[in-house]
Specification:
The complex is a heterodimer of chains A (630) and B (380). With 630 residues, chain A is an alpha+beta fold. Chain A folds into two domains: 172 residues, Alpha-Beta Complex (Penicillin-binding protein 2a (Domain 2)), CATH 3.90.1310.10; 359 residues, DD-peptidase/beta-lactamase superfamily (Beta-lactamase), CATH 3.40.710.10. Helices cover 37% and strands 20% of the residues of chain A. In chain A, strands 2, 3, 4, 5, 10, 18 and 19 form a seven-stranded mixed sheet that branches. Chain A has a five-stranded antiparallel sheet with strand order 12-11-23-22-21, sandwiched between helices. A three-stranded antiparallel sheet of chain A has the order 1-8-9. Chain B is mainly α and 380 residues long. Chain B has a three-stranded antiparallel sheet with strand order 1-2-3. The radius of gyration of chain B is 22 Å and the shape is globular. Classes of the chains: A alpha+beta (630), B mainly alpha (380). At the A-B interface, helix 1 and helix 2 of A face helix 8, helix 12, helix 14 and helix 15 of B.
């Protein structure tokens, strides 16, 4: 059906439709206007913040790490600036071509490539990773001329950690390394994640680890305006980074080096302490290694060499390895005898050369015995029988109770990571240590062995040195420490690591004097006399031999046992005899008798500390030394 | 003053005769705005956009010179040319960004679908003019078919934005021609209900596996992104999120000319073309945005007045449809940039960078002027 309309009718209907269309347009525009109002007025604050967040980025400014110097200012750890060649993988055309292209005019060896791959796997793709460090000026110039060819490759000036002393005092200073997943967890636990934004390195061992919080410094922030591509367009404000605190150690680097040299190529440890403060003067663990290897990520070969070496250079023997103290335990036993009232200084026993206990004969070193032996002589000649009897009289509980206050079998609390507890044997310890009731039972014969420092006894050289210091400072037990001052980088203010006497052991001065007199006797006429012959000062000492391989009942002959099965050589000492300035413990692994290897090292160290004498050669081994003396 | 028709003043008068002063004032306002915004958003493109403007104004002037009735005589050839070119695009067109839209004619590349935005209403207006007084369901059916053929070809390219605009252009003519409300209302209701259900069930519909019948994957993504731009903040949603941030952070009075951080730090995508409104809203705030709305409303009002006073049915329909095309451009673009409509490639009329759209729009203005002049001639 076709409808016919008059043109006027059409026109007026058209006008109505125009009005409808106009109204529709108006409504739609009102909708737009209300949307504008909603976005620009109602939600203005929200979008303002969002725009600012878009625009402003906080860029971390990594602080310089604090330096480490010894007590005289010798630098142990410092930073130096060097150029690195860094690649941002996501911005290069192709990673392989880029590296190959760079290798045409900059030395990039297989090791650099391997390290680059390793770091790349650990890092996020938008971060730049160094393909080469320590570029020479010439290499920088060569790259600059070619840089247009390499998008995503940049030369950066960065600070590197350097340990100028090389392999010396490595176990004390430790090293830093790239932050890994485990470090990130630790950073999160400490709640300092923000302070590590931008940081690539963290302390991994030694003081670098234990004083990480002080050394790292405070990360600064730069507020920059960035574009959508993340590129900084201009700087808005910045909070400078605060350089980490410097550490000034109690350690004397010269003493440390003399001690290290004295060891030669022997394995072992030495701890020298200032008895009046607990400050560590030297802390040696040999063999050692170069911490600089670790800073930029250690190569696989280097790591294998260190980790697989039978000498275990990575092991911090001074604080982590516990050895039976042998006869160095005797002065402390003697003191326990006096303090407990079981012995008096003048009381003597007859030594037949053995001690019978429960059907077993415990032998003395000297066939036929030392005759009549009092406390003084027992220390000087290192008479086993005296201490077999004393151990029996004190009982294992008595020994454990008397020894615990000296710090035996407990961590000293030194400001270094990875300290071992050692073992102060007792029935309680045995119950904890073993599973079956048979194993857990304490046997009386075991007490006798403990009395001469064998058996389950095991202490770190640090524990022995600290006990030595306690014995000669009037019974004060310090928390030993390597750091003397923490120096604030901004104010220069020195925070003193206070000598921290943990406790005062209740001992009578006359008892201490009796034991010390015995120890002075050792260096005058006993097992230490050969090592300290001709010393212009009086000193006290005690040799010890830790049995590695027990040849029961028969006489031990060092030469017949393979070197690794030779006994460990111990020596503890202090000097001068009156008002001691140094107390130390020396352990030489498989060094044989205490007097043979350890005592000559102690002599060199004390000679330097008191007299400034420099031997500059390994301490001689005294092959004629004896285990006990007359 | 001389009576000679060649007197310079006379010539000048003759030259400006076809120009409608109200429309030219509004145009001046819009172009002024465009100039200011382009200087901020993309100063390096200012020169070339000025060239575009001059070409577009020339086209406008030419169209304005033509008598209204002559306009309709171009309808059939233009329409046929448009359809032929669209078929040519289908056969020989250049592929750009996954869509086949461009045709290389040696001198320049053209987008034939753009031509249909004017050819379509022109054709339908001509058609209804021919049937004046005899318009019934058959006419509406034929009109719908005339509309469907080119739209089908454009959808196939695929170009959602242009097919939407061409459909709208055609629909407006049919609407003004008097299509029964009984047909419009149910279709509108179905549309509202389906859009409503897409919004309501968007989560389910936007699952990766769900196929939308009749829509390409990228079109589905655009709709889904509109529903929840945060789903993909770095990908599809980035445009909308960044443009709403730009608009919202502009606040009441804006950050100031050249001081839009979103614009100048490149957070705002397509800032000289489809998203130029966000530049305006960021730098000039709500005040600046409302000024633009008022300019557009003035344009529509003038367009409707011209339509209402047009002498013939064809001119009425053409003027009304052209006005509504302006509205559609403006509404769809601003709706999209503020996040209430999906991202379809529709420029902000007279403001966005680009020659083709500007020429088309100015041609529309020229048509309005021509019709306005036709009315004057008629009165005399």
């Amino acid at each position: 059906m076709i409808s016919f309309h008059a043109p006027e009718q059409d026109a007026s209907r058209f006008r109505r439709r125009v009005l409808v269309a106009g109204a529709f347009a108006l409504i739609c525009f009102a909708l737009l206007a209300s949307r504008f109002y909603y976005l620009q007025v109602v939600k203005f604050d929200y979008f303002h913040t969002r725009a600012e967040d878009n625009r402003i980025a906080l860029l971390p400014i990594v602080p310089n790490r604090g330096t480490i110097v010894d007590r005289k200012g010798v630098v142990l750890a410092r930073n130096y600036a060097a150029y690195t060649l860094e690649i941002t993988p996501s911005r290069t055309g192709g990673l392989e071509q880029t590296i190959d292209g760079l290798a045409e005019f900059i030395t990039i060896d297989a090791r650099d490539r391997r390290r680059f791959r390793k770091i790349l796997e650990e890092s996020r793709s938008f971060e730049s990773v160094a393909i080469r460090t320590r570029l020479s000026d010439e290499e920088v110039a060569r790259f600059t001329a070619q840089r247009y060819r390499f998008p995503g490759v940049e030369v950066q000036a960065r600070l590197f950690r350097d340990y100028p002393q090389g392999a010396s005092a490595t176990h004390v200073v430790g090293y830093i390394g790239r932050i890994n997943d485990r470090d990130i967890e630790r950073i999160e636990e400490r709640g300092v994640t923000a302070n590590y934004r931008g940081s690539d390195y963290i302390g991994k061992s030694g003081l670098e680890l234990s004083y990480e919080a002080e050394l790292h410094g405070t990360t600064g922030f730069e507020q920059v305006e960035v574009n959508a591509g993340g590129r900084a367009v201009r700087r808005l404000s910045s909070t400078p980074a605060v350089t980490g605190s410097d550490l000034e150690l109690t350690l004397d680097m010269e003493l440390q080096k003399i001690a290290e040299t004295a060891f030669g190529d022997r394995r072992g440890a030495l701890v020298a302490i200032e008895p009046s403060t607990g400050g560590i003067l030297a802390l040696v663990s040999t063999p050692t290694f170069d911490p600089n290897l670790f800073v930029e990520g250690i190569s696989t070969q280097d790591w294998k060499a260190l980790n697989d070496s039978p000498d275990h250079p990575l092991l911090h023997r001074a604080i982590y390895s516990a050895y039976p103290p042998g006869s160095t335990f005797k002065p402390f036993m003697a003191l326990a005898g006096l303090t407990s009232g079981k012995r008096t200084p003048g009381q003597a026993i007859a030594d037949p050369g053995y001690f019978n206990f429960a059907g077993h004969r415990f032998m003395d070193d000297k066939i036929g015995g030392h005759g009549m032996v009092d406390l003084h002589k027992s220390i000087v000649v290192s008479c086993n029988t005296y201490y077999y009897q004393l151990a029996n009289d004190l009982g294992i509980e008595g020994i454990a109770t008397a020894m615990a206050p000296f710090g035996f079998g407990a961590r000293t609390g030194i400001d270094l990571p990875g300290e071992a507890e050692g073992v102060l044997p007792s029935p309680a310890w045995k119950r904890k240590r073993f599973r079956t009731p048979e194993q857990q039972r304490w046997y009386g014969g075991e007490t006798i062995s403990v009395g001469i420092g064998q058996g389950y006894n095991a202490y770190t050289p640090l524990q022995m040195a600290n006990a030595m210091a306690t014995l000669v400072n009037g019974g004060k037990v310090f928390r030993p420490h390597v750091v003397r001052h923490v120096i604030d980088s901004r104010s220069g203010e020195k925070r003193v690591i206070e000598p921290d006497p943990i406790r005062q052991i209740a001992v009578k001065p006359e008892h201490l004097a009796a034991v010390r007199a015995g120890m002075v006797g050792v260096n005058k006429s006993g097992t230490g006399r050969r090592a300290f012959a001709g010393a212009p000062y009086d000193s006290g000492g005690k040799t010890g031999t830790a049995q590695v391989y027990s040849l029961k009942g028969s006489k031990y002959v060092a030469g017949q046992v393979r070197e690794r099965l030779r006994d460990h050589s111990w020596f503890i000492a202090y000097a001068p005899a009156e008002n001691p300035k140094i107390a130390l413990a020396v352990l030489v692994e498989n060094g044989g008798f205490g007097a043979q290897s350890a005592a000559p090292i102690a002599r060199q160290v004390i000679d330097y500390h008191l007299l400034g004498k420099r031997p500059n050669e390994p301490a001689p081994e005294d092959v004629e030394a004896e285990e006990s003396a007359e | 003053m001389s009576d000679s028709p060649f007197h310079p003043l006379r010539l000048l008068q003759a030259f400006f005769r076809p120009i409608d002063p109200i429309l030219i004032l509004i145009m001046a306002g819009l172009f002024g705005y465009a100039f200011v915004l382009m200087s901020s958003a993309s100063p390096e493109r200012l020169d070339s956009q000025l060239t575009h403007m001059m070409v577009a104004v020339a086209v406008m002037w030419c169209a304005a010179w033509l008598p209204g009735q002559r306009l309709l005589s171009f309808a059939v050839p233009l329409y046929l040319l448009g359809v032929v070119l669209l078929v040519a695009v289908e056969l020989f067109g250049e592929v750009s960004k996954g869509a086949q839209r461009w045709l290389d004619i040696g001198v320049t590349r053209i987008q034939p679908s753009e031509l249909m935005k004017i050819a379509m209403p022109l054709m339908l207006a001509w058609f209804f003019q021919q049937r004046e007084g005899r318009i019934g369901w058959r006419e509406f059916l034929i009109a719908t078919m005339l509309l469907a053929v080119p739209v089908g070809l454009i959808v196939k390219q695929p170009d959602l934005g242009t097919s939407l605009l061409v459909t709208a252009a055609g629909f407006y003519v049919i609407f003004f021609a008097g299509l029964s409300w009984r047909l419009i209302v149910p279709v509108a209701l179905v549309g509202i209900v389906s859009i409503g259900s897409i919004v309501a069930f968007g989560d389910t519909l936007c699952q990766p596996g769900v196929d939308w019948v009749g829509m390409r994957e990228y079109q589905k993504h655009r709709v889904c992104t509109l529903l929840d731009p945060t789903q993909d903040p770095l990908g599809k949603g980035f445009h909308i999120i960044q443009s709403t941030i730009a608009i919202g952070s502009g606040g009441l009075s804006g950050k100031g000319w050249m001081d839009g951080t979103q614009t100048h730090l490149s957070f705002l995508p397509e800032r000289h073309t489809d998203f130029i409104f966000a530049v305006l809203a960021e730098e000039f705030g709500l005040v600046g945005a409302l000024v633009l709305l008022v300019l557009y409303l003035a344009l529509f009002a003038r367009g409707f007045v011209i339509a209402a006073h047009a002498p013939t049915l064809g001119m009425r329909l053409l003027a009304g449809a052209v006005t509504m095309i302006f509205f559609t451009y403006a509404f769809v673009n601003m709706g999209m940039v503020t996040g209430i409509l999906p991202v379809v490639g529709v420029p902000l009329p007279f403001i966005s960078y680009g020659g083709t759209a500007l020429v088309t729009l100015c041609l529309g203005v020229g048509i309005l002027m021509s019709i306005q002049r036709g009315k004057l001639v008629n009165k005399h």
